[in-house]
Batch of 4 targets.
Target 1
Amino acid sequence: MNHALLQFDQLRLVDDSDINQSDIMTSFAIDDTLCLTATETKQPAIHLWVHRPTVVLGIPDSRTPHINDGIQFLNDAGYKVIIRNSGGLAVLLDEGVLNLSLIFPEEKQFDIHDSYQAMVEFIRWLFEDEPYTIDAYEISESYCPGTYDLSINGQKFAGISQRRVKQGTAVQIYLCIEGDGQQRADVIKQFYEKAVQGEETKFNYPSIKPEMMASLEQLLGKSLSTKEVIDQLLTKLKQRNIEVFNQTFTETEQQWFDNRLNLMNKRNRTIS
């Protein structure tokens, strides 16, 4: 974990990984709030979140020609659907997917690629004891393909997005930890089939091959859970003498959070 953005002594932790208490739009509003805090205090933070079955659409997905058919398919399959406020395309979240956000104060000497690379190095460090190489390059036939897709032996298990609010940056990654990554990919493949229906579109939606995706427990060949990964993360931070602290939102942060949650709700009225 040598990236300059990762050289911190203290890290604020917001653990939002209890699926019985967490809400997907709340999680995005928390990231925005932590970005605003980082703008004021220069304090980095880490946000962990896990959710019940949800498909998070990107803005381009909401513009597919038959979006209502696509959403109906997802709803019938048991998935909640929202539109997120950061970049990228559709991703699938459930109890076996750990979302992790690193929030940094935006320093002028770092560009957008530095923030992505910091997350890549952070995940490589987290799993450095595994006998596999984690590659970072676009898996074009995955869902939500991007330059910083993380894969092992050509099968993607994680994707990274980024959001900047004021002078704060949230680098967000979903880590497919448990279950069947191919099955998740097949759901998104079918969503695009229902939402596009073969029509010509201005935007180039991915042509998904489910076999290009897998979970970490499939790739590592061993049982693994989101809780075990969280525990591993906290242990490794402690071993590096990084002080991890919890702090409830201040009154100002609560106001920021309420405003950001309201914006998320407004964004999603069109599909509710």
Target 2
Amino acid sequence: MRHEEGGFSAGSVLLSFLLGGMVGAGLALLLAPQSGVETRRKIRELTEEVKGKASDYVEHAKEKVTSTVGKGKEVFEEKKSAIVAAFEAGKEAYEKEIHK
């Protein structure tokens, strides 16, 4: 994830929060006074919940990256034509100056 000026990106913070929550919940389940069957059931439920949230996060990140790349391509194409036009104009002016 990208390092922002003076801190971490929102995605980094969210991922750290989710991982910290998973570790904390796992420890709480393992240390809680309940049967092994009940503990395994809770761990399985927690795992499914975290997998769903992580999947949603990854999908959102993919959408954001795709959108950003698309916008970058558009800007590049816009600037590319302006640069080519400026280069051609400069080239023509240079050739006129040489042939004087």
Target 3
Amino acid sequence: MPRALGLTRVAVVEDHLLFAESLEVALTLEGHDVHRIEVPVQTVVPAGWLLTALLRVRPRVVLLDLDLGSAGPGTRFIEPLVRSRAAVVVVTGDTREAVWGECLRRGARAVLEKTASLNTILATIRLIGDGRPVMSREERERLMLVYHQEKQELQDVRARLARLTPREREVLHCLMEGTTVREIARASFVSEATVRTQVKSILAKLEVCSQLAAVGLAHRVQTRLVSH
């Protein structure tokens, strides 16, 4: 038997239509007052629009995806939603522990994988409705520590990248695109020896021993910035 309607007002913020509809149906059958906030797939929407739509609903619980397509990263909405006294449960396909730790640091009550069963999601909402913790303090602290460690490491990498000259940044960007030293030299009308000297300087400033490691560092920072 479904529970009494209006047990908990839940907002679902998810740009994957099928997943959002599945959550809406399951939560409604449980008796929750469900409001699905549709995120346009192709039309770029301002972050303020989505936040305003959420605050207008006045949800008790928000099931929030992190990859919201045209609306950008979902992490930006956690803190304002928490300030509105909504309990934020992040439901994401991103399995990186540092990302989970960041969500918790911003105030999310829990982070669940999208592969989690509907029963797990429903149980999480019940715990919140009952005013009970949904994650152990030890697990929250562990994930937040992972986030802080990665944040410190990324700051260190950015500081090393800042040492590069504009030309060295150009060369590193070419390496990230898979361009060879010979191709860089040909496109820049300089000798291969000159490009190799520039690559050697890049490796020294980034404190790595190979082009692959240098590219890996740059991609790591770039990916983190794009994601959040």
Target 4
Amino acid sequence: MNHPKTYNAKELKTPIGSIFIEGPIPPDKLAGYEFHEGLVAFRQPKQQQKALVEIAGLPEGRIIIARHREVIIGYVTYLYPDPLERWSEGNMEELIELGAIEVAPEFRGFSVGKNLLRVSMMDDAMEDYIIITTEYYWHWDLKGSGLNVWEYRKVMEKMMNAGGLEWYATDEPEISSHPANCLMARIGKRIHSESVQKFDQLRFKNRFMY
């Protein structure tokens, strides 16, 4: 199920100049930009840029970026779930994961995260997908933000809501291991009820084991 990736863009006017939110970005273009040194949530900036270029080259992979001049200062990724995760077990072509979202610390506070999600959903092809994201508190920048776990969770939920993602219950062990962790999802308008059922079965695997 490979949809054409329709490019969309939006300009955010901020006190430090315009920030452009755009994508999906093709791999060659992504490789040509500078990657901000503050993007260190998942791995070192150069390695993370390399990983994003690989994702952008996947048939289902989508990278939406935020850039300040020619520097990438934020991004969001969409791709099929990791084969080792529960979410890939249904082999659902219509289920993709919002795998990572990150904004460089000095550019936070300008609604960059929310707008990365809004631009992502401007593409009509997203109505053919169930988009999931798994939020784990150990990935959150609690130290840098000065927020506690619950405050940060609220910020994450609000940001995801901007892209139409909502909280969904699940018995997945890692998510269930801490009450701040959560599963969020957006079910596209053209998703059939059988797919929703399949998704429900992935969300609850231990339902009949009590």
